[in-house]
Structures are given as structure tokens and as C-alpha cells.
Design a protein that fits this description.
8 strands, globular, alpha/beta, binds magnesium ion, Rossmann fold, binds guanosine-5'-triphosphate, about 220 residues
Length: about 220
């Protein structure tokens, strides 16, 4: 089973609490995956690499994804000849220092609404920068999502930027600490959205998760 590349359809971008509340209330069985992480860690790049080129917008200016962007993607099972569709959410980055208080508050409210109203069928992918793991905002975010009881995986992106063996092993050595401090984290992946490393494993994890939800 695979994600059908290039068949990921943009549905809408939401930037108000009211709109997000009504969308989530209108859609009762939201089965899908949400990407969230600090600004500039490569969420949009990762989405594009997994779901097909130019699904999400990539930018050099941090904080460009200001809305909850909602997409629909398709998982194909070639043997059973079935196709199922699921939701993909590109959620605005957290821990952004350069925005006004008002904007930061709006983001926080959007996140609160999103996590309170999306049901437990959403897989949460917390994207972090492999060069700067477990930054303060990442830790704050991990503790924040604890109460929402979502299946959570941590994805370290930009591993291509780790040039030495010691940098790579320092990152890998954090795994036990992550699993013990954040018990809701069930998987940890090391990827490069740019070079493709580790993406197959992430794709299979997403597929396994969403397919399991329709079976239960
Ligand atoms: N070297 C390297 N650069 C990457 C990788 N993934 C993303 N980038 C770069 O990182 C920058 C930010 O990427 P985005 O995908 O826009 O990041 P984002 O997390 O969506 O950012 P916001 O929408 O602002 O929160 C871009 O310049 C990308 O080209 C990667 O795996 N390796
Ligand atoms: Mg983005």
C-alpha cells in the first residue's frame, strides 16, 4: 500500500477559529495525519516529498504557513484494488519568535481549537530539525499535546545537514530520553525531505496508521 503521489488535493486553508470550528464539527470522522513543528523545520517540504511535488508551499521565510491547510490524499492498495482517501493537515508552526503577540495568540487559539475538536483518529507528526533537536518550544509543544491523546511520532528532518558521525550518533542517543519523557511518542524517524532518506518508512507508518483506523 502506498500514498498516491501527485494526487493530493488542496481543499482549503483556514485562518479563523470560527471557520476551523465549523469545519471540524461538520466532519465527524476525521481520519488522517497532521504535520506540526517549529517554523522552518521543513514541514511543507516533507509534505511535498511524501505526497507529491508542490502540494504545500515551501519558503525561505520562516512562518509562511499561517493557516491550517487541509488536503485530501489517497492510499492505493494494488493487490486488493482499493483506494481510500484521508485528510492531511499542514498546521501553522509553533515557537515563532518574530511575530506580534496578537498573531502568536491567534496561532495558539487555532492550535487549541484544532486539537480539541479533531478526534483521536489523527496521527500527529511532530517535525523537528535534526540539527537542533528538543528545542524549548518542542518540549513545550510535546507537553501541551499530552492531554489530547493522539498517536504521535517525532520526525527529525534535514539529516542531510548532519555531516559527522558524532552529530548523527548524538541525535540517535536522544531516543531513549524522548521515549521516556514523552510517553505518547510511539515512533521516531530520521529523514531528509530534500534527499529522500527515511521517507519510505514514514510513508509506511502513515499508511499503516490510517488503514488501521478504518478497520477499527
Ligand atoms: N538541507 C535540507 N533543507 C531542507 C530540508 N527540508 C526543508 N529544507 C529547507 O528548509 C527551509 C524551510 O522549509 P519549509 O518546508 O518551508 O519549512 P516549514 O516547516 O513548512 O516552514 P513554515 O511553513 O514557515 O513553518 C526551506 O529552505 C527548505 O528548502 C531537508 O531535508 N534538508
Ligand atoms: Mg510550511
Amino acid at each position: 500500500m502506498n500514498i498516491q503521489k501527485g494526487n493530493c488535493e488542496f481543499l482549503l486553508g483556514i485562518d479563523t477559529i470560527d471557520q476551523l470550528t465549523s469545519w471540524l464539527n461538520e466532519h465527524h470522522f476525521i481520519n488522517g495525519v497532521a504535520f506540526i513543528g517549529r517554523s522552518n523545520v521543513g514541514k511543507s517540504s516533507l509534505i511535498n516529498s511524501l505526497f507529491g511535488k508542490s502540494t504545500a508551499r515551501v519558503s525561505k521565510t520562516p512562518g509562511r504557513t499561517r493557516q491550517v491547510n487541509i488536503f485530501r490524499f489517497v492510499v492505493v492498495n494494488r493487490e486488493a484494488k482499493t483506494e481510500d482517501s484521508f485528510y492531511l493537515f499542514d498546521v501553522p508552526g509553533y515557537g515563532h519568535a518574530e511575530v506580534s503577540k496578537e498573531m502568536a495568540l491567534n496561532w495558539q487559539n487555532l492550535l487549541d481549537t484544532f486539537f480539541q475538536l479533531c478526534n483521536e483518529k489523527i496521527l500527529l507528526l511532530n517535525i523537528q530539525d535534526a540539527r537542533h533537536p528538543l528545542q524549548e518550544p518542542d518540549i513545550v509543544f510535546q507537553n501541551y499535546i499530552k492531554s489530547f491523546k493522539l498517536e504521535t511520532y517525532v520526525i527529525f528532518n534535514k539529516v542531510d545537514k548532519l555531516k559527522t558521525q558524532s552529530e548523527r550518533s548524538r541525535l540517535k542517543n536522544l531516543m531513549p530520553e524522548i521515549y521516556s519523557s514523552f510517553k505518547w511518542v510511539k515512533q521516531i524517524h530520521f529523514v531528509s525531505a530534500e534527499k529522500g532518506d527515511g521517507l519510505l518508512a514514514v510513508e509506511q507508518s502513515i499508511v499503516t496508521y490510517v488503514m488501521r483506523q478504518i478497520e477499527t
